[in-house]
Amino acid sequence: MIDPRPLFLMPIVLVVVLAAAALLPLPAAAAEEAAAAKVSLELYYESLCPYCSRFMVNRLAGIFEDGLIDAVDLRLVPYGNARVGSNGDISCQHGPYECLLNTVEACAIDAWPDLDVHFRFIYCVEDLVVKRQYKSWDSCFQKLGLDPKPVTECYKNEKGHKLELKYANQTDALVPPHRYVPWVVVDGQPLLEDYENFEAYICKAYKGTSPPKVCEGLVHPPMALETVSARNGVTYNSGGIKLATAEDEGRDSKIKMRLPDYDN
């Protein structure tokens, strides 16, 4: 004879299981919610702008350390104050080596879409810019254990040029137009020359249920952008291509070109 007791227990067990399941987090749903709550952060810059490189190395990289990166959708746009001529050639504000490094960094973003990977590489290059050792940029491949082939092949052929044209279009489409670099945009709002206070703007714009802990220390409201006065912490877009100073970049000539084919 079949014991009927298990049959009576099944509905009870089912209720308990369903109740327990309801208390468990739903990883997929939680991940989607977290992604939707992320604040867009865009950095429009050029590789040899001293203020851009210092901002990236000394300030922006900090969000990977303090946890704010979890609340951010970061996008880097390496083009800055460059110009596209009628024939498609690109002129860079700080000369040919800036054209090279802008394209190298664009190729890195394309080759390694993972932010953790391409940011580490670009950080390495910009750190060398800060140290005035940027001609050794290709040492970053070995330092980070990255295969140089996808980047070197990209910047030496038409693909790199097309990537830069894409970033040119994105930069030129900014509303309001950028006037200098670094040009930092948080949640669609340009921060003008208050860009060093970008973390406070991110925390203010964050709509998630659990703000990053670092936001607890950024309770003061950012200054009104309309009152921000001009400082010397930016490289201006003069409407043309101007030379870098010898002190900042060590360049002494202006060259209009498509892509310099330098190896180091």
Per DSSP, what share of the residues sits in E-state strands of 2 or more residues?
5-15%
Global outline? globular
Q: State Rg.
A: 24 Å
Structural class of the helix and strand makeup? alpha+beta
Distance between the termini: 85 Å
Strand order of the largest sheet: 2-1-6-7
The number of distinct β-strands equals 8
Task: List SSEs in N-to-C order.
Answer: HHEHHEEEHHHHHEEEHE
Question: How many distinct helices?
Answer: 10
Question: Major sheet, described briefly?
Answer: 4 strands, mixed
Poorly predicted runs of 5 or more residues: 13-17, 240-264
Helix content: 40-55%
Mean pLDDT across all amino acids:
82
Keywords: Glycoprotein, Signal
Pfam family, one: GILT
InterPro entries: Interferon-induced_GILT, Thioredoxin-like_sf
Protein name: Gamma-interferon-inducible lysosomal thiol reductase
Which helices and strands occur, and which strands form pairs?
Elements: H1 5-23, H2 27-37, E1 39-45, H3 50-58, H4 63-66, E2 72-78, E3 83-84, E4 90-91, H5 96-111, H6 115-130, H7 139-144, H8 149-156, H9 158-172, E5 180-181, E6 183-186, E7 189-190, H10 198-205, E8 235-236
Parallel strand pairs: 1-2
Antiparallel strand pairs: 1-6, 3-4, 5-8, 6-7
